[in-house]
Amino acid sequence: MPEKMASSKQDKPILRLKDLADRNFRGWKIELRTDNPRRWLYRLSAILLGGVIALIAIQLSIGEGNAFERILKATIGSRKGIENVLELAAPLMATGLAAAIAIKLGAWNVGVEGQFFMGAWAAAGIAFALDGLSGPPLLILMFVGAIGAGAIWMLIPALARAYLNISEILTTLMLNFVAMAFLAYWATGPWRDPRSQGAVLATPKLPEQTRLPVISIAGVEIRFGIVIGLVLAVLLTAIFRKSVFGYMVATVGASERVGAYAGIKVRRLLVTVLLASGATAGLAGVTHMTGGAINRYSTSLSSNTGYTGIAVAVLAGGSFLGTTAMAVIIGAIIAAGNSLRILGVGSELGRFGLTGFILLVAAVGEGLSHYRLVRREPREVAGSAHTPLSVITLTEDTNI
Amino acid sequence: MIVEDSAPRSAIVPLMEIREVTKRFGSLIAVDRVDLDIHPGEVHAILGENGAGKTTLMNLLAGLLKPDSGQISLDGSEVTISSPRKALELGIGIVHQHFRLVENFTAAENLHLGWNETPRLAGNKDLVDRTHSLAKQFDLDVEPNARIWQMSVGEQQRVAILRTLSRGARILILDEPTAVLTPTEADRLFEMLRGLAIGSNRGVIFISHKLDEVISVSDRVTVLRAGSRVSTLKTVDCNQELLAKMMIGRHLNTQPAPPSAALGPAVLVGKGISARNDRGVPALEDLDIELRSGEIVGVAGVAGNGQRELSEVLTGLRPVDSGQIFMGDQELTGAYPVEFLRAGIGHIPEDRYSSGLVTSESIDHNAVLRAFRDPPIRRGLFLSPAAIKSYARQLVDAVKISIRDLGSSVRTLSGGNAQRLLTGREIAAASKALVAVHPTRGLDVGAAEAVRQVLLKARDSGVGILLISEDLAELLSLSDRIVVIFQGRLTGEFNKYEYDVNTLGLLMGGHPAEIG
Lengths: 400, 516
Ligand SMILES: Nc1ncnc2c1ncn2[C@@H]1O[C@H](COP(=O)(O)OP(=O)(O)OP(=O)(O)O)[C@@H](O)[C@H]1O
Ligand SMILES: [Mg+2]
Prior knowledge:
heterodimer; A: 400 residues; mainly alpha; ABC transporter involved in vitamin B12 uptake, BtuC; three-stranded antiparallel beta sheet; 17 helices; B: alpha/beta; Rossmann fold; six-stranded mixed beta sheet; 25% strand; binds adenosine-5'-triphosphate; binds magnesium ion
């Protein structure tokens, strides 16, 4: 009975934000804004607000112990906490950037996870094959290999999208499963470390000279992945904002049709951008393997790092610098979730409950950022700007 | 002496009274204390330059925007129009330029979609019957079973109008309804509007830039300028000159264009071109066209006879099945659009918003859409923001749009100003040839005249211009040569001063004629 419902809705209208817009509240009104240059500020405050509310809820729900104190210590309240957060954030920065590159063109690289693994795989292969080389040349080869492998893993989806108009969402997603099977084969077969056992399959440790340095700033040890993520974000921002390439991406991202009209080779650009996204995911893989705690090729290299990266990029609204910041925030949320395990809050519950709630608040914040609160202008202001057109003069001099 | 006709005469209770309505966008006052009465039974035309605030005012009435101040009353009682749905409940219906119909649905389905009077569990037959009787009730010619994509634009418009009327609209608003219509379709629309209004308790608000249309269809005219109402007059007291003067505040000189001075060598040439449209149906068949430097070739034809495809083939946007395209000696068949651009071919596309402008991007982004590859805008791999700004500023000044912030999005421009931006940009890009489809569509009379002058200037400097238009008067006044297109073929060719309107009309309708 659709019309019944429709008519009852009309009788008792539900109050919507849109209806509130332009209504007056004691000299103030809510106004719809066409654009909002400080949307990131809304996003950030919404996430922080969500975090605070979630914290309070958790504290109230556990019987004893101090959740605040524990979370603070596990995140920004201690040197170890900060190190922990940054370690969790490092791989998310790179995977987030990979997803953000595709988003610039309105495309979705859901295959970050797979490309991440393929990058690590290629790098591990190079390291095993050439372990006689010294650190810097070997690392350079490994990085080049990983970037290439990530890009190649994206090649088929990119070409299928550009030339056959097959959605890249499905193809990239499916290739993730292929990558996982591929990984399992190498980790259990040719490269198996005889000592590894149980659910985690792993190869032997990589040669010691392939470890990326850890940087120490004010006594805080920072993984090299953070440096790579930040440098990459700055570079990408410069390229996409200032370059001819970035201009073309923005145009095609808004409309492929207008892109073609502007003389842009749309298919070629699509392929280029998707490959760049895959390459960045491959880079994320090798960076995490050589710069993280694991230093070997294993199934535990990623804890959904690729998928989480997509969420990070979306939350950051596709901005590159925003993605690095968001990676740190999500890293902190994960660290907080982990720290609650001791208080009897399941890690998964802590993490997903927390993340989900924060995303919800962020979404509300996003909606609110389309509105603003303004003071009603006094009548005189409008009057002074008004220059009446004289009707009489006009009718007189037309003289008909 | 003109008698102001804004005050309601005691005999008539206005359907709608608008008092001191104001709408601001930031510091811009788009609609400034406008008063307007709509009487029952009248067709009320709104005239004004591009950006005068016509669309904004209509959006206020249709509930799409909310006024900052002022009152709107219907049948003497004040109302608040908080949403489009509320507007329809109050009996105010708007037919947009883009009709918002579902392409794959039939007229009957579109009519009943999302309508709370649609009977539950209605079968197709019920919908068709209802559509028939509604069409009859409003005396509109609508074929219930035809799908939207099969219809001409005029037929689609009738469906949109019927949809609005059958939901009880007593005030029917049409924003530039004739911009997309062929002249014959426009005539039918006028007949229909007069039929709807005369002797009924309905009122029609009609926006157009074409002064002859306003004079022939409306009972009263309100002229807006820079957001304010200049005057409201009875149409019988007006003529085109007077209206133009009120609109733009000066006299308009329209003189027929002098013929081409120096005809140069062939620039853009298509030989034996066949191509298909978006649905894969042949749209151009073995068509030959030659455009010479320094001439304007007009393409006359009823919409949908291959004009769009021709313009796209000649600018590299649509592949050909067979045939060749040349620019001078250079063959461009199968080349990327960018090669056409490099060869100096500009293109004013049929649909500015979906093909020629990135509406979500800024004005300066759109200004350099054709020039971003060239220095000084491009420096190596990068773009120079300063050069972009100055290029955009120059362009905007050249086409006389007053814009404070080049960073604001094209979406905030009025329809006509967006067209001006596009036209100016393409004329700058066209060093050898320009394919111009409806270049003055949506422009006010002053701006349209300015664009015609610019086209003539480009021609005199040696650019070859292919002018595709449904405006026969424009074609006749500008073209050095006119070709007629019918079902993807050129069916006639005339030199300046040699054509007569009757033969042209016959050829456009597909009747073979003696070609003299
Ligand atoms: N959403 C918006 N934000 C900011 N400015 C706007 C917006 N919509 C319209 N404007 C501005 O308001 C003014 C009036 O625009 P409007 O579209 O009403 O003009 P118009 O009379 O319909 O012109 P045209 O004949 O070109 O269609 C223009 O200067 C336009 O740029
Ligand atoms: Mg308008």
